[in-house]
Every structure is written in C-alpha cells, then in structure tokens.
Design a protein that fits this description.
Shape: globular
Largest sheet: 2 strands, antiparallel
Radius of gyration: 18 Å
Helix content: 55-70%
C-alpha cells in the first residue's frame, strides 16, 4: 500500500482501500512483500546509515551524536513533514476525518480488550481528544491569529499525553509476568529509553529512539525537539502552537497506536519489525 506524497490524492487513495484496518495503518506504516508475506513496518523504524555524508560536514547549532547525526536528523525532518502533512489533510477533509476518528476508536477499544485494561478508560480519553479536535476544526477559521494557540494547545498536549498513556499500558502488559511496574518507572523518559527491553523489543530500538527525538531529547547529547516537555512546561513558543503542531502530535500518537495494535493483532502481525 503506497501513501502518495501528493496530498490532493490522499482522499482518493483512502477511498480505494476497502480494508478499514489498512486505512489506519497506512497513515504511519509501510506494507512490503517479504518472501510472500506482508511485512508491516512503521516509517519511524528507519535509520539513515551513519556513513559520512555532506550533511555531517554542515555546521549547525543543533546537538547531534553518533545516532542523531546531521543526516539522520534531516531524514527525521522529512519524515515528519510528510506525516504531518498527511495528518493535516485528514483533519481538514471531513469524510476522511470522520472515518479516521472511528478507526482510532475501534483500534483503542481492541487494545483495551486485548490488555483487559478497562480501568484505564483509553476509549473515553480518545473521545475527549476528538471533541477537542472538533472544537478546533469548527472555530479555527473564525479566530484571530493570537487566539489560534488557545484552540490548538489542548489537542496537541492531549495527543502527547494519550500517546504516553498507551505506551505505559503496553509496557505494564508486556512486563506483567516478570515484575510490578510502579508509576515512578512509567514517565515518558522511562518508556522511550534504550534500556527498556520490553518496549525496545516490541517497537524496535530505532523506532523508540526516533520517537524520543520528536517528543523528548537524547539523554547523551540533548538532541531532539522535546515537543512533549515544551508543551507540558509551557516553554514552547506561542507562535508554534498551530494546527500543524496538532497534526504532528496526532501523527505521532497514531504511529504508537498502530504499532501497539499490530503487536496485539495476530492476523495482521505476520512479520513486523
């Protein structure tokens, strides 16, 4: 399944796909034929090989290290641009947006039932998120530029918080046979840590590190966008709190949701890296 880079073709591609699950997965994952089996992998599970490149000779102020090289950060920026643009197109295309919201709720409900974690109320949280998004979409055209941030902050922050809650529930489910996981070990920095074998084995170390780049920062070099913390601590520039930021956070949430959904779905999870 190919996701077109031409955003005007997104709705047509979406409607050509009859399989509802494939529609949701195709937002963040790639489908490849691997010896007769379908391998479904997140686009965030890709890494630019650390060979020397022209990017690494460009001097920038951005922190970098042996993993977050200049070249790889350029790759992550491109991946983000495409993912954010796709999500923004979904948000502003009414029919696709309604379908997307239904698919997300179905996937979260499936995960809740698989984990047997009704107490987490993930499906209720998803409904809150979509009420926030709906309010933003209904009012964004009427608001003055200085008021847009007020409409966008809530859904952006809530998308990050819900992503974290999903990861936390998944981590506890993975580790339940081995140990008790207290709240003090389930902060986002603990979850997106290369020393966490449960999430690294299920997502893949590259995937976890790439998520960390967008949401937090590298422990070693401080490379990363730190979006979640800047939102949580209000250190983000007000001018940055826009529908584009909402689309970006929603794209990251969808990536985590799809990856966990795949892990839980044996029918789809034929060969997932």
């Amino acid at each position: 399944t190919d996701i077109p880079f031409d955003m005007n073709e997104l709705e047509k591609a979406w409607n050509r796909t009859d399989e509802r699950t494939v529609r949701l997965l195709a937002i963040t994952h790639e489908f490849n034929n691997n010896n007769g089996k379908v391998a479904i992998t997140s686009r965030l599970n890709n890494y630019c090989n650390p060979h020397s490149s022209v990017f690494d000779f460009i001097q920038t102020r951005s922190p970098k290290d042996s993993f977050y090289t200049e070249e790889h950060q350029q790759h992550l920026a491109l991946t983000e641009t495409i993912g954010t643009a796709m999500m923004l197109k979904i948000l502003i295309t009414r029919k696709v947006y309604v379908d997307y919201s239904d698919l997300v709720l179905e996937a979260v409900t499936f995960i809740e039932n698989h984990f047997e974690i009704e107490g987490e109320q993930l499906s209720f949280d998803v409904q809150i998120l979509f009420r926030m998004l709906q309010k933003m979409l209904e009012n964004i055209q009427e608001e003055k530029a200085d008021a847009i941030g007020g409409l966008c902050y809530g859904p952006a922050m809530f998308s990050c918080a819900l992503l974290e809650k999903l990861l936390r529930a998944f981590y506890r489910w993975l580790a339940k046979e081995d140990k008790y996981v207290p709240d003090t070990q389930t902060a986002l920095g603990d979850l997106l840590n290369s020393n966490n074998p449960y999430l690294n084995n299920s997502f893949g170390e590259i995937h976890i590190k790439n998520l960390r780049f967008y949401l937090l920062q590298s422990i070693e070099s401080r490379a990363g966008q730190n979006v979640r913390n800047e939102l949580a601590h209000l250190t983000i520039s007000p001018k940055s709190v826009t529908p584009l930021l909402v689309a970006k956070c929603l794209w990251l949430f969808t990536d985590v949701l799809n990856t966990i959904f795949l892990y839980c779905n044996d029918d789809l999870n034929q060969n997932v890296d």
